[in-house]
Specification:
Number of helices: 2
Helix content: 10-25%
Low-confidence stretches: 5-24
Number of strands: 8
Mean pLDDT: 79
Radius of gyration: 17 Å
Oligomer: single chain
Strand content: 35-45%
Number of domains: 1
Strand order of the largest sheet: 1-2-3-4
Distance between the termini: 62 Å
Structural class: mainly beta
Largest sheet: 4 strands, antiparallel
């Protein structure tokens, strides 16, 4: 069977974006949204690749059989191990922070990204998850914070 150009593009895009998953992420749960839907809430955990004492859990909609997943998501990050001054010294400290994980949500280049930002004045790590494509007039996003108080980094 011969594939046309669009079919080849879709397959190549799908293969390329499948590899863009969060660093060290793992599925920890799945909630069905009903008997007559192909959409589920997926819950994944991942450890910050530099500040390894932080674990984040993110929930997002996974729409099987759709070309694009909804942009809604939620994130919660907590200290789950030591956080040292050296870890904080090794992270991006600009106000834009750095992307620490991303996951494809569409074959047309929409992705869910997680960015770490360091609030030096409050000594807090901020983790924001967001969609790279506008949906219903907004870029969907969610925020979680991890204060450094009581850690070795304080």
């Amino acid at each position: 069977m011969k594939m046309n150009s669009l079919g080849k593009l879709l397959v190549a895009t799908s293969l390329f974006t499948t590899g863009l998953t969060a660093c060290g992420d793992s599925s920890v749960g799945q909630v069905s949204l009903g008997l007559f839907t192909t959409k589920d809430i997926k819950i994944e955990a991942f450890q910050d690749p530099v500040v390894t004492g932080v674990t984040c859990h993110i929930s997002h909609i996974d729409a099987d059989l759709d070309f694009a997943d909804p942009s809604d998501m939620s994130i919660a990050c907590r200290q789950t191990g030591p956080i040292t001054k050296q870890m904080i010294a090794n992270i991006e400290q600009s106000s834009a922070g750095e992307v620490i994980a991303k996951k494809s949500k569409s074959i047309l280049f929409k992705s869910l990204k997680i960015r770490r930002i360091y609030d030096k004045q409050q000594q807090t790590l901020l983790y924001v998850s967001y969609s790279t494509k506008e949906s219903q007039g907004s870029h969907k996003h969610s925020l979680s914070t991890v204060p450094l108080y009581g850690t070795q980094a304080w």
